[in-house]
Amino acid sequence: MGIARDELDTPEKLALTEEMCIAVVAAIEGLCEQQRSALVLREFHGFSYSQIASAMACPVGTVRSRVYRAREAIDNQVRHVPSSASDSGGVSSGAPELQGF
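Predicted structure:
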């Protein structure tokens, strides 16, 4: 799910989108190593939960928990970005949106 270029045609919308991206990156960097690793493998590299479990040498349930908690922590951090960022161009602060990375 991408944002069309014409939806970001005002400087305000571009700034808010950049602010949201900065907030998400900061939230990811603020995660503990285990949560960050599980989330990055899942969302950015497309690993399955079982592949992540093998790579991290832990049960699949633990991986699912780490990814869930990571998404929850990011969602909590991103909620502090001005609400107009989520109202201007379809950018959402909800954790389910992270699944589309």
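Summary: Residues 33-100 form a domain with the Arc Repressor Mutant, subunit A fold (CATH 1.10.10.10).
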